[in-house]
DNA sequence: CTGTTAGCGCATTCAA
DNA sequence: TTGAATGCGCTAACAG
């Protein structure tokens, strides 16, 4: 019941040549329906499974792709993996998930090793590996297709998949404006990241469109971490002209803002609305009172993988985002609105 | 710079036979230090990496193992993957992470396909695949070694790695007793899971040792989900002889308990201590006031993988747990202690 | 539509 | 301590 059967066994049982078996295996046309069925029955009976190793060695494609990542948040990575996985499933490909350390001086070599050892047909890069120069260089030097998910910098000649950060920030800002907010604090993200500027741009664009002034005092710097949110909130909330809402560029910073608000005895969202981007995917679990822009992480991963499997060259795909509204955020203390 | 070089190129450059290169590749003894160095230098120069495919085809081991899982919580899975990954790194093996759907009637076939197609040398099973009969059967029928991480049922003849649930529950209960609690509600886990009985047993053992009576009224059934925690808390907290502490068998149920306590205006931990097991690894993020037993998930995965790679037969390894104490839990309202 | 002949890159006999 | 031959299971030309 457990002997490994090979293509020869199948061909013998079906009474055809091994090449014919190979043909039905690869879904080749020019196989009569009759023999095809016979071969398939034989494969079934023997529980035949083609050895990937042999296919790699003999053929040109391995049917395998790799996902390379470095610990982003577990929730985020889970979404990424699932998205890639689903796309692979649909395509009949295998996925090799490979964690790396982008700070390791040998990452480039490691990736090169992975590719030459496993013969993967392509690579999906997830943040922050998307912007790891040694990896990018290694890949480019090897002539292997790769796609980047939400890259932080724009390498024109590589394929990528991303969301429209400017539009998302615009949507969120408009959302707040529509609810009566006129003074909206904005906590900016790390300047290394392309998304930071985009999000700020969207915020400004929404203010503009609504005819509201852009007040530099309402912009705080940040680095996408909890402490940045704390610092920003302290600055905003201890001033006399307190914003009625704070828009943090990601969820970790939003959490920092929330904690300060809480310490100051401010009710959220009654005294202060706090909104953000759900970058690490934890926001909705931990702070249900938060209205967030959901990054379509899983969909991005899926699209990236599909792109890779389809072999499209230097394609950039922009995916839509979601604004996840919490009922609670709408309850704003009217006294605070100016 | 990117041509794939093979063992022949190396042998030519080093001026030795193919076989000798193969020997140094596999760390074989009986190679003179001199030639070994020469070969290694040649490999370096050519950027040579052995093709796994060729090794699989020609040899008997693939140097690959698979981790099979079904969506547990992302945090949990992240720990599992990292643990397996680290062990593989140390061993120079590759890890194939394979999600499956245990409810799919074809899981068995899928796993069989994975094994025969990829030639993996062994399998690590993570909950709930540890108890998926079709998978277990497929594996046993294929004569491939596998190790189970925290299995729910005890298949005597398979290797497994787990924590001591009884001792952990005992520790937690003793911890509460030491802080003055005399009436401790216990929310039991799903009866399908071996850990449920173990944890209850540990709870009872601690009470016994402290000379406290076991009160059946203080035991509530549960199914490891939020709602079970809610139901149990309602029963406990609406009765007249309210427990001063509630010990939930996992964190989802602890969350349910917390939500009820909150709705009833009970301060945690001032009016009620709530403790639990950190099964899904989210507890510490979401409810910092919770004192929990941390499952050594990563360590379990590491140990399981090591076991597999070492080829130990039918070994069972028990790992120690941690009790993660929050300062807050110690502040108990003395009025509530009887 | 189908079969024949070569290898893919390595480990594994055997021999030296 | 080393080398020469053989074949793993499959696909890729080429035939027919």
CATH class of the largest domain in chain A: Alpha Beta
Mean pLDDT of chain A: 87
What is the alpha-carbon Rg of chain A in Å?
A: 26 Å
Mass-distribution shape of chain A:
elongated
Helicity range of chain A: 40-55%
Q: How many E-type strands of chain A? A: 12
| Spans where pLDDT lies below 50 across 5 or more residues of chain A | 327-338
CATH superfamily of the largest domain in chain A: Response regulator
Organism (chains A, B): Novosphingobium resinovorum
GO molecular function (chains A, B): DNA-binding transcription factor activity; transcription cis-regulatory region binding
Domain HTH lacI-type (chains A, B): 5-59
Protein name (chains A, B): LacI family transcriptional regulator
How does the SSE layout of this entry go?
Two copies of one chain form a homodimer.
Chain A: H1 7-14, H2 18-25, H3 33-46, H4 52-58, E1 64-69, H5 74-91, E2 94-99, H6 107-118, E3 122-125, H7 133-142, E4 146-149, E5 159-163, H8 165-178, E6 184-187, H9 194-210, E7 219-220, H10 226-238, E8 245-248, H11 251-263, E9 273-278, H12 283-286, E10 291-294, H13 297-310, E11 316-319, E12 322-324
Helix pairs in contact in A: 1-2, 1-3, 5-13, 6-7, 8-9, 10-11
Chain A binds a DNA duplex (16 and 16 nucleotides) through residues 6-8, 16-23, 25-26, 29-32, 35, 50-51, 53-60.
């Amino acid at each position: 019941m457990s002997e490994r059967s090979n293509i020869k066994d199948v061909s013998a049982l079906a009474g055809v040549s091994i090449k014919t078996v190979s043909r039905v295996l690869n879904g080749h046309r020019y196989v009569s329906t009759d023999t095809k069925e016979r071969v398939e029955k034989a494969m079934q009976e023997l529980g035949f499974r083609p050895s990937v190793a042999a296919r790699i060695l003999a053929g040109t494609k391995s049917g395998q792709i790799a996902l390379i990542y470095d610990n982003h948040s577990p929730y985020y990575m889970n979404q990424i993996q699932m998205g890639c996985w689903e796309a692979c499933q649909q395509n009949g490909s295998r996925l090799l998930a490979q964690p790396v350390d982008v700070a390791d001086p040998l990452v480039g070599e490691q990736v090169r090793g992975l590719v030459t050892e496993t013969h993967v047909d392509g690579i999906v890069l997830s943040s922050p590996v998307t912007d790891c120069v040694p990896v990018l260089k290694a890949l480019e030097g090897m002539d292997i297709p790769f796609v980047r998910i939400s890259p932080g910098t724009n390498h024109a000649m590589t394929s990528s998949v991303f969301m429209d950060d400017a539009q998302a920030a615009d949507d969120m800002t408009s959302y707040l404006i529509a609810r009566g907010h006129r003074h909206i604090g904005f906590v900016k993200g790390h300047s290394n990241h392309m998304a930071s500027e985009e999000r700020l741009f969207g915020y400004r664009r929404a203010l503009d469109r609504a005819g509201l002034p852009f007040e530099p005092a309402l912009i705080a710097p940040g680095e996408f971490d909890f402490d940045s949110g704390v610092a920003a909130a302290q600055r905003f909330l201890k001033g006399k002209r307190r914003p009625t809402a704070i828009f943090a560029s990601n969820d970790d910073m939003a959490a920092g803002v929330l904690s300060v608000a809480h310490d100051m005895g401010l009710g959220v969202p009654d005294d202060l609305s706090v909104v953000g981007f759900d970058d690490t995917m934890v926001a909705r679990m931990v702070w249900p009172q938060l209205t967030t822009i959901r990054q379509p992480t899983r969909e991005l991963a899926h699209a990236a993988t599909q792109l890779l499997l389809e072999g499209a060259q230097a394609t950039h795909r922009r995916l839509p985002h979601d604004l996840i509204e919490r009922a609670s955020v709408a309850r704003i203390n009217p006294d605070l609105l100016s």
